[in-house]
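Can anyone check this?
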Amino acid sequence: MGALDWRDFGLKMLPFLLPMLRWSTVSMRDFAGRFKDPFLRRAVAQMFSWEEAPAMMGMSLLAYMHTGNAGFPVGGSLAFARALEGRFLALGGEGVLRVRLSPKS
């Protein structure tokens, strides 16, 4: 992207700047505290692994998943790891499994 592209992108994002700044300062714990139901308070607070996570992070993740820009590897992470291994071996790499390593001194 060139300078003009970045300028145009920035102008398009301008209307969203204040809401993004607002939600970036609200933790999931604080957001969850708005719920009356005790279960929802606990569940929403820990929805994205830790209670101190900014709500904006969680909203971004959900938005990426909604638009198809994020997700999980098809077949799970093991299938993804096996595909990486296969490519590495096809390029001449060598894999050694179940070997204990000692720390470097």
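Reply from J.R.: I decoded it. The longest helix spans residues 76-90.
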